[in-house]
Amino acid sequence: MAESAAPGSFAARVATAVAATGPLCAGIDPSSDLLQRWGLPDHPAGLRRFGSACVEAFAGVVPVVKPQVAFFERFGSAGMVALESVIAEARSAGLLVIGDAKRGDIGTTMEAYASAWLDPDSPLAVDAVTALAYLGLGALEPLFDLAAPQGRGVIVVVRSSNPEGRTLQEARTDRGRGPAVEDQLLGAIADLNRGSRAGTVGAVVGATLEPSAFPLPELGGVILAPGVGAQGAGAAEVGALFAGCPAGSVLASASRSVLGAGPTVAGLAQAARVARDEMAAALS
Amino acid sequence: MAESAAPGSFAARVATAVAATGPLCAGIDPSSDLLQRWGLPDHPAGLRRFGSACVEAFAGVVPVVKPQVAFFERFGSAGMVALESVIAEARSAGLLVIGDAKRGDIGTTMEAYASAWLDPDSPLAVDAVTALAYLGLGALEPLFDLAAPQGRGVIVVVRSSNPEGRTLQEARTDRGRGPAVEDQLLGAIADLNRGSRAGTVGAVVGATLEPSAFPLPELGGVILAPGVGAQGAGAAEVGALFAGCPAGSVLASASRSVLGAGPTVAGLAQAARVARDEMAAALS
Questions:
Q1: Are the C-beta atoms of B230 and B255 separated by less than 8 Å?
Q2: Are B137 and A164 an interchain contact pair (Cβ–Cβ within 8 Å)?
Q3: In this complex, is the C-beta atom of B231 within 8 Å of any C-beta atom belonging to chain A?
Q4: ipTM of the complex
Q5: Model pTM greater than 0.80?
Q6: Is residue A241 classed as helix, strand or coil in its secondary structure?
Q7: Quick one: three-class SS letters along B232-256?
Q8: How confident is the model at residue A231 (pLDDT cuts 50, 70, 90)?
Q9: Which of A8, A50, A268, B257 is packed most tightly, with the most Cβ within 10 A?
Q10: Choosing from B43, B74, B91, B102, which is the catalytic residue?
Q11: CA atoms within 13 Å, Cβ hemisphere of B249
Q12: Is the Cβ–Cβ distance between B30 and B46 less than 8 Å?
């Protein structure tokens, strides 16, 4: 347990970046509400300006940004043009980018989503993409296949921080005799990270929940922990939940608590610095 | 059980359309492979020509088309421009459009996806969108809220036809003591369809599976049944699985088996007609 990540893998790239700038993933969530509060138009041009301000504020301050795809998709293709621009700006600024798309499908359809988010020639190519495993972790194989040899990653939503998710995520596999869905998924992800995809597959594990049965230090991939800041979990909870996880493997994900400090670049950067330092202390 | 759908609801609109042109939902899946076989460029221009041929072939022949979003997203914003054009052409031709997006998230993010796919002002607005409930059916409320008053629909993936999905979908809720995830979801969907969202919420139920515990005729929403044709299920299986479901509530979904008859419009239309008539006989 708690071994260092496979060289060149997504987990290794995240660990290196976290060592430089701390364990925070800053969300880029241009909701209608935030655009209004920032005095930006609720329009694709507003998305671009919102994203540019975030990139300028977060570069060099945090290692990873996470644009929330839904807020761009809301404007259809014009919103996706804005997303492509934000992704390009963030990567140029040296930030790792997690595309929070939560895609999930099967077969050739899943291959197409893999192309969209992980093919280096795609305008949407990101360092890692989030995915949903309702159709089975095995159905996400095309993502893993495309991500692994490039050092890109896939972050599977396992334990969400919202209460509505508990019924499904706590259901017992093997028709009631096996582990909970979430623990079965964590175990299967750990298995993937022991093979040729070492360090490729991560998990979303909400920071506001009590620990489940699976020992998180053995995951072998990046853990993205939403629910930090505005959504509730503080440093003590984060520290307890992820105790023993390898250095640089946990990214606390903060969105509203940081973005609420906009629209100035200085305000955003300061809020990100505070959240980052708090989480660095919690996870050290 | 087996009551007729609430007037003006998505289920009622589907039932009316099925009464006119039969129970087939024709996929619009411009995969790289099919584009090549049709002699079209693997490029957004190819997507548009593929979609236009489908719309021309399917209008008046089947009631519903289902563009698979992943095959458009593969080209980023340029692919989404093509999707917007295909959706507009299909709706102009009098076809109902199901956007096969399988989106799923929580809170304001889910609201943003609802805007993207169900707001009448969105360039991506469709008659119904598919969704994933890994984060809980309750997390999809923003979709239901936006869909219901407009007679639009949400089709939740419940039982997928791929084997990798069984572990999760058959897991037992209530920590092992309750119904399977899929039956719990079907029951919760039926509850939604008894209230102010009557006829709004449908389910994807793979046609290749044995029946689960929930009595499908009581769902109160549209059932989309993939796995017909190239993927395996024939008329006998479809007829048995959906016996007793209300007239016009089941859409057999065929993609590869019909699209393989392209690229000519006549060939596509003929294949759709054959599949439609086979399913009409099975479901009568």
A1: yes
A2: yes
A3: no
A4: 0.97
A5: yes
A6: helix
A7: CECHHHHHHHCCCCCCCCEEEEECH
A8: low
A9: A50
A10: B102
A11: 29
A12: yes
